[in-house]
Write a structure and sequence with these properties.
The protein is an alpha+beta fold. It has four helices and seven strands; from the N terminus they run ααββαβββββα. Strand 1 and strand 2 form a beta hairpin.
Length: 149
């Protein structure tokens, strides 16, 4: 009888131990994305700096939102540009504006700026409309035409 009670009790503790192990494994899997994110470099401050910098008609953020209008959206991202891989202070910040014109056409504008963390300077790097690189003049005309669509 005593051995039956001992077997029954050890079975319970085995199940409890198994549940604890499962919970620990689940907690580890749920925490993994946060641990990996902490290991990577954060570009949040760079995105905020570019958004706040002076742009056409206000800040760069206001400019991107104006381009998007009521029918569009803006997605901000940042990364280390390959062209400046030797300079850890330079970060490329990109605003991708996707909008639908009144006529129903889908348009995409990509605006890239460089943020220099050391000098605190923000500079326009490139502009593309529907995947086509634009010069400053053709880009301005293209954006104006898109606003009129």
């Amino acid at each position: 009888m005593a051995s039956l009670a001992a077997t029954s009790e050890s079975g319970r503790s085995g199940r409890a131990s198994e549940k604890t192990t499962r919970r620990a494994a689940l907690a580890g899997m749920l925490a993994l994305p946060f641990v990996l994110a902490a290991c990577g470099e954060s570009f949040d401050a760079d995105i905020l700096a570019v958004k706040a910098a002076a742009g056409p008609g206000g800040t760069n953020e206001q400019f991107a939102n104006q381009l998007a209008g009521a029918r569009g959206q803006v997605a901000w991202s940042a990364s280390k540009p390959a062209a400046y891989k030797d300079n850890p202070n330079v970060v490329e910040v990109v605003a991708k504006v996707e909008k639908t014109t009144r006529a129903g056409a889908k348009r995409q504008v990509e605006i890239a700026w460089l943020n220099n963390r050391q000098t605190k300077q923000v500079a326009l790097e490139r502009l593309a409309i529907d995947g086509q690189a634009q010069s400053l003049v053709s880009g301005a005309l293209g954006l104006l035409m898109m606003q009129l669509e």
